[in-house]
Amino acid sequence: MTTPSSKAGTKGVPRADREQQILAAATEEFGRHGYEATTVATIAVRVGVTKPLLHQYFGSKQGLYLACLDPIGDRLLDAIRTAMAGHDTDAPPTPLRVLNALFTALDGQREAWFVLYDPTLPPGSDAARRAAHYRNAVDGLAATGTAELLRTAGTTDPLDADALKHAWRGLCTALVRWWINHPDQSPEAMTRRCARLTEAARGIFAAGDDT
After folding, report:
1. What is d(CA 140, CA 169) in angstroms, rounded to the nearest whole number?
2. Which residues lie below 8 Å from residue 95, measured CB to CB, with a gap of 6+?
3. What is the per-residue pLDDT for 2?
4. What sequence ranges are listed for the domain HTH tetR-type (predicted)?
5. In percent, how much of the chain has pLDDT > 70?
6. Mean pLDDT, residues 183-203
7. Rounded to two decimals, what is the model's pTM?
8. Cβ(79)–Cβ(101) under 8 Å?
9. What's the pLDDT score for residue 208?
10. Rounded Cα–Cα distance for residues 130 and 119 (Å)
């Protein structure tokens, strides 16, 4: 007997494949709307399964969020660490390598950045603590990178380094948000754009008050 269209996909799909479908939809929903506004029912409808199936697989909304978060956090950390590792002298500057690594890691799932940087996570929850763990790890890498850049420029003020670390996080978030709104832009195109903007900003700041 033919399965009715409303039930299509609820059976006959291997669990691993179904879980990946659910995680892809959930990542997009959490990233676009935030944890608080996202419902398990909405995700179930998107995938074409029932709420009980999602609870069977992931236990709860928080369990589903954590299942989305961990791969994102691990992927971003691996990408940043690789970009910050030693490179040939003719390689792009570290900030551009990191941005390229972020764009590449997020390509195809750009909203994932906002799964990690979600201000609506319930305070004190496992979700908030786990996201903070990843954010702190990213901030630690950013602190190392920005302090190194400032030392190269002859500046060792720790407050300068802290301010630059926060500015860097804000810049990455703003660039990813812009990128989401421009889906035709590839990671390579975004990296080239950032290189142009960096060069323009350097010229503007160097010009001082004469412009």
Report:
1. 11
2. 145, 149, 168, 198
3. 33
4. 16-76
5. 92
6. 93
7. 0.86
8. yes
9. 59
10. 13
- C-alpha 149/C-alpha 191 separation (Å) is 19
At position 51, the amino acid (one-letter code) is: K
Q: Which residues contact 102 (CB under 8 A, 6 or more apart)?
A: 76, 79, 80, 113, 172, 176
Q: In which residue are the tokens 């190392």 written?
A: 144
Q: Which among 17, 147, 43 is positioned nearest to 94, based on CA atoms?
A: 147
**Predicted pLDDT of residue 105:** 97
pLDDT of residue 9: 43
Least confident of 36-45, 137-146, 197-206: 197-206
